[in-house]
Design a protein that fits this description.
- It is built from no helices and 35 strands.
- The chain is an all-beta fold.
Length: about 375
């Protein structure tokens, strides 16, 4: 038996309020692993230099960073200068740090030949001593490509390090229990594919974008601004900046959870819902604290197994679906809960479309209009 709650309001003219963006501090730090398993702390908040690792490598204001490309043997790679592209194969767990490194034409492509090594790429300003520079692939391919056959992948960028590619902006793929972590400090653009793309099997995916950033695709009918796929791992996405086209797609299976929190506007001019997420037996949760503007549904959250579905629209947000529902939440054997807190939710078909095959449905409109 299918139980269903539908709240209808036909979509009229909906003004999309823009969210303010505050100043972005350049003080950032990234925790990454070295080959011996000791934590490294790369921090731009350490004043005049940076201490890397237990061995005590200090980079001062007069030490130049060399261009690096080719074979990475596990030693810390510090890269600086202007290069058409940086590429190579790692032969051990590898940490790569860009300081004043600009990539102009062919992007960055680092892999491990399927051997399962950890790869970490961090863009740092070394306490403001060195500027962060753009990473561009204007020839063909992603701006940043990191590939591992089962190792952990980490990318961290800071303001100034914009990334763009003719396909993906950032493409990070691993397998097995390998994890993918992105911390994005400036704009990312994928001309024909996803802006940010993360793939793994049973490993977890974590994506965070900073305030003032924007992630987008130039092909919203066939790609997402942010897309994350895991076979059975957990996916966590938090956007503090905008996703201006392509929206967000996140999908996992098994008992993996999908948790998406947006603190700024998310939209797509074509394709699917602006926020499109799905799981099986794990929690599927969307919390929208910024406006959501979809070409079909505004938000689509689906569980095909025992996982619960939870969708919350924050105060003063506008959630709209141009040719579908404002919010569409669908469950199978778990519960479906939709909460609207002082929100305008509109759709051409339904304002809120909540469906469940066997479980309970709860729709709570605390204030606002649907």
């Amino acid at each position: 038996m299918v139980s269903r709650v539908v709240l209808r309001r036909m979509l009229g003219a909906v003004g999309k309020a823009s969210s303010g963006s505050g100043a972005v501090s350049s003080a950032r730090s990234f925790a990454v692993r070295c080959t011996a398993g000791r934590p490294l702390l790369l921090s731009t908040a350490l004043g005049t230099g940076i201490l890397v690792g237990a061995a005590g490598l200090t980079l001062g204001s007069t030490q130049a960073l060399a261009s690096c490309s080719g074979s990475f043997n596990g030693a810390l790679a510090l890269c600086g200068g202007v290069d058409a592209g940086i590429s190579g194969t790692v032969t051990a767990d590898q940490v790569i740090v860009f300081g004043n490194q600009e990539v102009t034409t062919n992007g960055v492509a680092i892999g491990d030949g399927g051997l399962g090594y950890d790869i970490s790429l961090a863009v740092d300003t070394f306490g403001g001593l060195l500027p962060a520079k753009p990473i561009v692939n204007s020839a063909f391919g992603p701006g940043v490509l990191l590939l591992s056959g089962g190792g952990d992948l980490i990318l961290g960028t800071v303001p100034g390090a914009t990334i763009s590619g003719t396909t993906y902006g950032v493409d990070m793929e691993t397998s097995g229990a390998g994890t993918v972590t992105m911390t994005i400090g400036d704009d990312v653009y994928g001309a024909n594919s996803d802006g940010l793309y993360a793939v793994t099997d049973s490993g977890n995916i974590s994506i965070t974008t900073d305030t003032g950033t924007d992630v987008s695709t130039g092909n919203p009918s066939g790609a997402y601004g942010i897309r994350a796929n895991s076979t059975s791992g957990n996916i966590g996405i938090t956007t503090n900046g905008t996703v201006s086209d392509g929206g967000i797609g996140a999908f996992t299976g098994g008992s993996g959870a999908v948790i998406v929190t947006t603190n700024d506007d998310v939209s797509t001019t074509a394709g699917s819902a602006a926020i499109n997420v799905g799981g099986v037996d794990g929690l599927v949760r969307v919390t929208a604290n910024g406006n959501v503007d979809g070409s079909s549904n505004g938000i689509s959250a689906t569980s095909t197994g025992t996982g619960n579905v939870e969708v919350t629209a924050g105060a003063s947000t506008v959630i709209s679906g141009l040719s579908g529902a404002g919010i569409r939440a669908t469950g199978t054997d778990g519960t479906v809960t939709v909460t609207a807190n002082g929100t305008s939710i509109t759709g051409t078909t339904d304002g809120i479309d909540a469906e469940n095959m066997n479980g309970n449905i709860a729709v709570d409109v605390n204030s606002g209009t649907v």
